[in-house]
Each structure stands twice: as C-alpha cells, then as structure tokens.
C-alpha cells in the first residue's frame, strides 16, 4: 500500500471510529473528506505539501487535520488514531464489511445488544433480537443475514451444518451418475468437526474421467480449480471448495478411510501397522507387496486387530486404545431421540406460535417437546414477565388437551444474573416442568467470578439444565473464562443436566468435554435452541456432536420415554 493510501485509510477509519462513538457527524465528515483529498494527491505532492506545511491551504483541510496528516506522514503513526482505535472493540470494524450495515446501525447494535462480531450479530438475527430495535425490522434483519453469508464466503470457514447440507447435495448429484459404483462424504464433514474448510468426497467408478468432468459441470459449481482423470477441485457458489477423488472399486474402502482422516488418527494407525509388519495408505493395507483384501473399513480395522472405529471418533483421543480392548461406546443415534427441549416461540423471540411448534414436533414424530422462552431479564429477547408466563402456561394446558398425543412440557430459559441468582421467584419457577439456566450477559467476568456465578445457579434446587455452558459462538467468540471442571462437578453434585446446544453457531458443550461429562455420570440433553421451525432440525447436528463426544443412548436425557421424563421432573421437584 502506498503512503498516501495508508494515510487515507487512517483518516477514513478515524471517521468511522467517531461515528461509532456517536460524535458530532461534522467531525466524521471532515475526516472522510480529508481521506478523499489525500487519495487524489500524488505521492510526491503529499510529501511536498507536508514538508512545506501547505496542507492547510487545500480546500477541506483545516489546521487541526493538517497537523494530524503531517504527524502521520513524518512519523508513520498518529497518537489520536491509536487512542480512538483502543476505545473501539475491534470486531466493530468487521461488522462494517457486512453489506448494508453502516456505523449508525452498528452503534445501535453495540449499545443495545453488546454485539461486537459478525457471529454475535448472526446469532442475534437468528433469535429475532433486531426486531425490537428502533430503526430495524424483519427486512433489515433478513438483509443483514444475507450480508453475513456473503461475508463468510471469503473467510474460508463454514459451520458444519451448512457445509454438510452442501456436501449432501453434491453427493446426491454424484449418485445420479450412471457409471458410479460407490460414493461417500469424507474429511472433516464425515468426522463431524464443528467448523470445516472444505468438502471431501470419495467415489469409485469404471469411468473416472467422465465422473470428474460431470462433477465439474454441476450447477452448484462457480469455478473449476483443478480437473483431472481421478481428481477434481471446484469452488461452489457459497464459496466453499469441494474435492472429489475417484478410485477403482477395490480401492474404495482404503481411499475412504484415508481421506476421512484425521491426520492424528492416521499417524497412530501407521505406527500400529508398522509394529505388525504392515503398511497402510490410501491404496490399501500391505504386507510387503501383497495388498490385504478389505471389503470395507471394518475389515481394514480388523487387519490391525481393532474393532471398527466410527468416523466421528477418529481424532486420536483414545479411540484406538478402546478399539483394541473392544471397549468403544455404542454411539447414540438420531432415531433414539424421543423429544426435544429448548424451543422458543413468539412469547419471546421465536418466529412461530406455540401451536405451530406443537404441530411441527408432532409431525416430526416426537413424543414430547419442552417449551422454554426467555425470562424477564432478557429484555433484548422479549423475555417473559410473570404475567406472560402465566398466560403461556394457560395456553400450554389448553393445547395439551387439544393434542394429547404429544406431551408439552412448559419451562423457561432463565437468565443467570451476575450474582448467580435466577430472575423469577421460586414460587413462579415451581409452576414449571423444567428450568434451563443460561448466561447471556456480563460475559467479561474473571474465570473465578464466572465459575462462582454458574456454580451458585447450579445449586438452585429448581434448575434442571445448564444451557450452552461455555457461552461460545463459533467463528465469533471464545467461551467466557471458566473453570469448566468445577462447573461439571457442581452439576453432578446437584443432579443438573448439561445441555448440548445444537444451534450450528454454538454446539456447546464442546465435544471435547462431553466425554469428561459422561465419565462424571452427567446426563446430557441435546437441545436445538430453536427460534423457528426449521431449526428444530438442528437436533441432528447435536446428535453428531454427541457421537463425537463418545455419548451413548443412556447418556442422553432426551432419549428417555415421555413417562421417564415426567418421572424425572417430578422427582426433581420433590427434592
């Protein structure tokens, strides 16, 4: 970047910082104008004007602005700029990259909702929080979501849910190819990593070149990056790359295993193979020059004296040792989920009516659904006052009589206040079937204070579940500082269920800690945190994370029957 462009950029950012701070708009305009003037100067001309102190002679540049440009040109820094920059959360500039979102709207979002990153903004849009802000509406919210999707195309990272949907569409197209033998997803999508960078597919065909050419011409493809007889790399319209590897039919199990990964899992397997006089790679398992026949991945693992290891577990996190002892878990399956909790309605920030949610869940085959709108502290999400909660309880009773074939549990997602207390009196909470306690504000506490805050909430006898325990937003923010082990121990001591929040932006509790929670004997509830009907389907993502976290059916609360859940809730209330 040239010096004049760098100076112009600093002046432009100063104008933005001033707008974000709510300063007099004339000050911002002065810096914007100064940036345009500088950009139109020649390099030598700018330096000459600075040295001769003639910048202030230019129309639109006053004495104060002239001094700042001079400082910037001669020293390479500007104290005023650095001071302004230090006072503005860095993520706010990222928000400016979203099409249609300017400084004034960003200031409202920051002042009202504390939003500092695109991921936080996306989550707020998904929860309909912008609808309650002055100057925003449904169309604005929709346009912001489209803008975020546009921005993400160039970040190179994608939520598992989005990537898996695109990958499955590609796979379905591949399966329509007449000369296809087999095809499968591979890579991080098959292993169910929560964030993925690309799509990997493996196929076998007697016409590999024809298949790669067919793949490169699919309607989803926006650019062909590489095209060969056995491999094609393309970029989809959504900005994610997709790789297709085509092998011979007898090579398929080895290639599928190899391109599924992970690197760490394969490294450990290669060491194991060498200890047995074998070699393993994408073309097979070899003893010398002889390739051992493996008709599928299960036989491949058997050649290494291991039980079959599901793709979700292939991260070198103890799965090989467990497979050697035939001690791998029988992973929970989506069909074992009997019902769901953590669903929002129009009573707070959901899109759908209570009855629409009930009908949708009944149609989906669930035996029960747990409604949990936001509590009154969540004013930004239309949290329910006590009178609203009573009105909702009455409607639940009426709908339960109307739809007896599905059980409706009435709960609440209660904010955990900074001191660890809940925001309803116990007399109100006792009327509910369950209570999800969650942190939504005051995220910048120290680890000690946040841990104490959560532990105090878990001690409350009417708390049933801890919602999104770490508070993380994928691609947006890390979880709040926390001694998670202490929190999990408190949950075990007080029989509180841990939520696995299945929202694609959360997937919290992280799968890396689910095994630890399971080993402590904690129950996990896979909850969609749905704010619209289609998000109820995110439960499937939660199941994928549960599998990755080594969970079995017995570890997951909502694999229980309706009768068992009712008994559990009644037992909790009697404590």
How are the elements arranged and paired?
Elements: H1 3-20, H2 25-39, H3 43-51, H4 63-75, H5 79-86, H6 91-95, H7 103-113, H8 118-126, H9 138-152, E1 158-159, H10 160-174, E2 180-186, H11 187-190, E3 195-196, E4 198-205, H12 208-216, E5 221-227, E6 231-236, E7 241-247, H13 252-260, H14 263-275, E8 279-281, E9 284-287, E10 290-292, H15 297-303, H16 319-324, E11 339-343, H17 354-363, E12 368-374, H18 386-402, E13 407-415, H19 426-429, E14 434-438, H20 447-459, E15 465-466, H21 484-493, E16 497-501, H22 511-519, E17 524-527, H23 539-548, H24 562-573
Parallel strand pairs: 4-7, 11-12, 12-13, 13-14, 14-15, 15-16, 16-17
Antiparallel strand pairs: 1-3, 2-4, 5-6, 6-7, 8-9, 9-10
Question: What does this 3D model show about the protein?
Answer:
The structure is a single chain. The chain is an alpha/beta fold and 575 residues long. The chain has three domains: 3-152, DNA polymerase, domain 1, CATH 1.10.150; 159-324, Beta Polymerase, domain 2 (2-Layer Sandwich), CATH 3.30.460.10; 334-573, TIM Barrel (Alpha-Beta Barrel), CATH 3.20.20. Helices cover 44% and strands 15% of the residues. The strands form four sheets. Strands 11-12-13-14-15-16-17 form a seven-stranded parallel beta sheet. The chain has a five-stranded mixed beta sheet with strand order 2-4-7-6-5, sandwiched between helices. β15 (465-466), α21 (484-493) and β16 (497-501) form a beta-alpha-beta unit. It starts with a helix and ends with a helix. The model has no long low-confidence stretch (mean pLDDT 93).
